[in-house]
């Protein structure tokens, strides 16, 4: 699973801290999502999508292989 | 209070509680140690509730994985340890059934009960969460 969170955040001129505050998580979580180390829950994914006013699938791109948080 | 301040406060409280417990243990004041730990815990719970600090979902995932790994390591370890400690006394090896070696059997019994307790807690919590998250339902 890849995501465009970093690009969207830059487009909206938000820092990781600001984004974390807006979606109610820690900055570490934003960093982990951006670096594809953590896959957010469906609720958090929708929260992010709503914040940037885009669809969830526009941010998170499934690449076909099993790539969840089991690693 | 934000998450950063909460974390700083947690470090400070942990430091003070550790200092109190260390002093209490040195002076054989175990009641003071218990009181110190309890006070620290209650204080942090109240601060957390008042400041409305929510557990981050990634943190929860980390905690779940750590708990699962702890169980996967701890349960077999104490189970096997209990078996190995109880084996000599049941096997009729005389050196383990008298004098200073008696503690081996007692320790084995403690470990065995701990293992059973751990498995029981796991089974109950598994059953509870399985029900909570819709497992075993007959609804269509």
Instruction: Give me the CATH fold name of chain A.
Output: 434 Repressor (Amino-terminal Domain)
State the helicity of chain B in percent bands.
Answer: over 70%
Sheet with the most strands, sense and barrel status of chain B: none
Write the element-wise H/E pattern of chain A from the N-terminal end onward.
EHHHHHE
Proportion of beta-strand residues of chain A: 5-15%
Shape of chain A: globular
Structural class per helix/strand content of chain B?
mainly alpha
Q: Tell me the strand percentage band of chain B.
A: under 5%
Bulk shape of chain B? flat
- Tell me the total number of β-strands of chain B: 0
**Greatest interface by residues involved:** A-B, 11 and 7 residues
Quaternary assembly: heterodimer
What does this structure look like?
The complex is a heterodimer of chains A (71) and B (140). By secondary structure, chain A is mostly helical. Chain A has one domain (2-57): 434 Repressor (Amino-terminal Domain), CATH 1.10.260.40. In chain A, 54% of the residues lie in helices and 6% in strands. Chain A has helices at 5-11, 16-23, 27-34, 42-52, 56-59; strands spanning 2-3, 60-61. Chain A has a two-stranded antiparallel ribbon. The longest helix of chain A is centred in the middle third of the chain and has 11 residues, at 42-52. Chain A starts with a strand and ends in a 10-residue tail after the last strand. The mean pLDDT of chain A is 88. Chain B has 140 residues and is an all-alpha fold. In chain B, 79% of the residues lie in helices and 0% in strands. Chain B contains 4 helices and no strands. In chain B, helix 1 runs antiparallel to helix 2. The termini of chain B are far apart. The A-B interface holds A 24-26, 28-29, 32, 38, 40-41, 44, 69 and B 3, 54, 56-59, 61.
């Amino acid at each position: 699973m890849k995501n465009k969170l970093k690009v969207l955040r830059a487009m909206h001129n938000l820092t990781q801290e600001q984004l974390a505050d807006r979606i109610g998580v820690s900055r570490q979580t934003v960093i982990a999502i951006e670096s594809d180390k953590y896959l957010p829950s469906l609720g958090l994914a929708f929260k992010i999508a709503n914040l940037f006013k885009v669809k969830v699938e526009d941010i998170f791109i499934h690449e076909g292989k099993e790539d969840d948080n089991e690693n | 209070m934000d998450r950063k301040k909460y974390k700083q406060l947690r470090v400070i409280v942990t430091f003070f509680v550790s200092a109190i417990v260390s002093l209490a243990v040195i002076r054989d004041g175990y009641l003071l140690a218990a009181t110190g730990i309890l006070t620290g815990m209650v204080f942090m719970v109240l601060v957390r509730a008042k400041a409305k600090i929510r557990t981050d979902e990634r943190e929860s995932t980390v905690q779940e994985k750590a708990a699962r790994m702890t169980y996967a390591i701890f349960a077999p370890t104490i189970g096997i340890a209990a078996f190995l400690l109880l084996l000599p006394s049941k096997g009729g090896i005389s050196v383990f059934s008298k004098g200073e070696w008696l503690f081996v059997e007692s320790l084995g019994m403690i470990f065995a009960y701990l293992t059973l307790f751990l498995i029981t807690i796991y089974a109950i919590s598994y059953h509870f969460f399985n029900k909570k998250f819709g497992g075993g339902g007959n609804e269509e």
